């Protein structure tokens, strides 16, 4: 049972998230042979003020 965790900054709409999980599932099925019904994906959406790059919060970016 493949289990994938995806961390991303919030802001994508439901259609984009559906496309993401469909594409990731398809890639796992193609490359591992696992059946799609056994592929589990967990999306963790973070607020911009909970993520930093190079010592700067993403919420501080323009």
UniProtKB/TrEMBL annotation:
Its EC number is 5.3.2.-. Keywords: Isomerase. Gene3D superfamilies: Macrophage Migration Inhibitory Factor. Pfam families: Tautomerase. SUPFAM superfamilies: Tautomerase/MIF. InterPro entries: 4-OT (IPR018191), 4-OT-like_dom (IPR004370), Tautomerase/MIF_sf (IPR014347). Residues 2-60 form the 4-oxalocrotonate tautomerase-like domain. Belongs to the 4-oxalocrotonate tautomerase family. NCBIfam families: PRK02220.1, taut. This is Tautomerase.
